[in-house]
């Protein structure tokens, strides 16, 4: 009788904790959306041209690639790891695929396949070193960041890819639209919905959160930790590769330093979006909103003619604030759960 009553009790406890966590995550995402609305409203009141059709389209186009990278980074961060190489992967993929299609007269399909292959290979190397060799993720991805940057400069050798040499179909991917909706935001939204549904609805998706919440408990529960961490890095690499192809499609002209420093923007978007840097908490929806918020802030500062230095300073401040809020929320949730458990025990 005791065994029969214990199992439902444990499931009920897990359900209560999950409901509380879902409530906190929804609150974080709604707060980001609220800040975004207020920011846009205030800026539009100062400069009505900010909400022109072209201005809004530019914001979503510029946010699309960052959101795509943030979605991949979310996979990694929820497992208590980090990928600092994504910006370098975008730069390498953008130049190599541009060089490939311009020199060989290749097609958009060739560019996409090549970009995914390069990005996936970079993610695989990171994942193998972290999951199988046990090297700290910060060390691994910081090292591969510089290796990939060096490889990018070696391949470029001071050259530049011009938009005139890129297939028109690929350029249309970066500037075209369907019924007035640009392709790039559509791609980012579709990837976000697919990844978000997988992480929430599939047992294997929830295992990523289990690893981040408690690696030891996940191991005892039979979760294949190494395989999941490796998968997270491969997904991050694939989306970074896709981001590199979309970068080429969006801008046409590519040099070796493209997306330089974007790794910090991606991490900032993820953390500001409510994904805990210590793992186990967050959603791809919040990460995408974080990317949109950072992009909007950049556009607002340009419209208001504020020095670009303040953009980096503001992003840094938001990152510190988000980490502090995550810590306070974690402590608050711990106290709430302890009080609930104490009441149920009595």
UniProtKB/TrEMBL annotation:
Single GO molecular function: transmembrane transporter activity
Location within or outside the cell: Cell membrane
Annotated transmembrane regions: 30-47, 59-78, 110-139, 180-199, 229-249, 261-278, 285-304, 310-330
CDD domains, alphabetized: TM_PBP1_transp_AraH_like
Keyword Transferase applies: no
Major localization class: membrane
Cellular-component GO terms for this entry: plasma membrane
Membrane topology, as annotated: Multi-pass membrane protein
Protein name, as recorded: Autoinducer 2 import system permease protein LsrC
Assembly mode: The complex is composed of two ATP-binding proteins (LsrA), two transmembrane proteins (LsrC and LsrD) and a solute-binding protein (LsrB).
Its job: Part of the ABC transporter complex LsrABCD involved in autoinducer 2 (AI-2) import. Probably responsible for the translocation of the substrate across the membrane.
UniProt KW Transmembrane keyword: yes
């Amino acid at each position: 009788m005791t065994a029969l009553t214990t199992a439902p009790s444990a499931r009920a406890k897990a359900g209560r904790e999950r409901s509380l966590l879902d409530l906190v995550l929804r609150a974080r995402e709604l707060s980001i959306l609220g800040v975004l609305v207020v920011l846009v409203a205030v800026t539009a009141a100062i400069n009505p041209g900010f909400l022109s059709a072209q201005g809004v389209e530019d914001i979503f186009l510029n946010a699309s690639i960052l959101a795509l990278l943030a979605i991949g980074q979310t996979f990694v961060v929820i497992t208590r790891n980090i990928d600092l190489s994504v910006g370098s992967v975008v730069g390498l993929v953008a130049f190599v695929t541009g060089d490939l299609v311009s020199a060989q007269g290749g097609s958009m399909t060739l560019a996409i396949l090549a970009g995914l292959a390069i990005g996936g290979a970079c993610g695989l190397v990171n994942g193998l070193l972290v999951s199988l060799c046990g090297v700290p993720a910060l060390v691994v991805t910081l090292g591969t960041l510089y290796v990939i940057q060096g490889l990018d400069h070696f391949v470029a050798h001071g050259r530049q890819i011009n938009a005139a040499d890129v297939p028109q179909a690929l350029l249309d991917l970066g500037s075209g639209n369907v019924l007035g909706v640009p392709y790039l935001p559509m791609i980012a939204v579709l990837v976000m919905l697919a990844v978000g549904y997988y992480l929430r609805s599939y047992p294997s998706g929830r295992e990523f959160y289990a690893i981040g919440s408690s690696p030891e408990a996940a191991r005892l529960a039979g979760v294949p930790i190494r395989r999941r961490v490796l998968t997270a890095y491969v997904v991050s690499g694939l989306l970074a590769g896709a981001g590199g192809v979309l970068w080429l499609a969006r801008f046409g002209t590519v040099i070796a330093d493209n997306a330089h420093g974007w790794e910090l923007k991606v991490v900032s978007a993820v953390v500001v979006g409510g994904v805990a840097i210590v793992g186990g908490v967050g959603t791809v929806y919040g990460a995408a909103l974080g990317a949109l918020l950072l992009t909007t802030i950049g556009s607002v500062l340009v419209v208001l003619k504020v020095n670009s230095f303040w953009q980096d300073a503001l992003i840094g401040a938001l990152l510190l604030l988000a980490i502090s809020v995550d810590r306070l929320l974690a402590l608050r949730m711990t106290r709430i759960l302890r009080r609930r458990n104490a009441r149920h025990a009595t």
